[in-house]
Write a structure and sequence with these properties.
14 helices, alpha/beta, about 55% helix
Amino acid sequence: MNATSPEAAAPGRIILLTTSHRVAPGLLSWPAWQALHSADRVLCADGAHPQLPYLREAGTTVDEAAPTAQELIDACAGGRTVVVVATGEGEPALTDGLARLAGTGRIPMPDLELLPASYDLPGARLLDLVQVMDRIRAECPWSSQQTHKGLAKYGIEEAYELVEAIEDGDRDELREELGDVLLQVVFHSRIAEEDPEAPFSIDDVAGGIVTKLIHRHPHVFGDETAATPEEVKEHWLRTKAVEKRRESVTEGIPLGQPGLALAAKLASRVRTAGLEVPLPKGEGLGYELLAMAVRAEAAGVDPEAALRVAARAYRDAIRAAEGLDT
């Protein structure tokens, strides 16, 4: 009697091991290492997979093979466990083939487990953006010729479009415009890498703002305390003053910004510093607008935003007069 033993008839187990290219190779979860060390066979279709040197260094034998779904099922016969180290595409052809065979109902299927061996951390997609920008800078005829000065106007445009998306309350548009603003940061940082005298990279930019944020938030990262937004702003301004060592509260205010915003910023600096500065005397609409902007700032109103709201209402009235939908 040639009865088949339960062990020989067992369909076995397939483990599809996925990793993130945004995480350093070799940094795998403990369940992943356990699966790799206990597997009867480990397969990978990509001989240049970044994980392979580290798996082999850890004593794991990896066969470079791209089995079909049926071949993989056969490899699991007798209760064997086969780990497939997935390529960047995630092995769709293999998983589709397994699904088709399972759908026939005629083949004993191994247990199939998807095991993520490494996960993206928050912000990991920023690495993709840096890589894409690096390639575009190197290979795109237009992007490769751009300079900081040439891109300056786009930074202004994207900032205004972001503000418009915020004011419209359009979430999809907001996400897109934030991406466009982020692109400006990455693009300028990539150009800066090529400066022969004072190069810097996106890592230098990020490192600088991280240091600044930590230093200006002693109530979060240090021993200071702040219970109100006003106290937070006080911490911020005090540490900023020490960093910049400015002689005047007007230093650092860009004079090229829109007039109402400029007037409000000056008024804010004066009020925060506790200075008594009378408004300059003069005739004409400019001085009247200055006075209105200062009053608005004192009342906690952004005069630039308030004027935009009124201008939008005016725009709608114009379209209504033209017989158009608003």
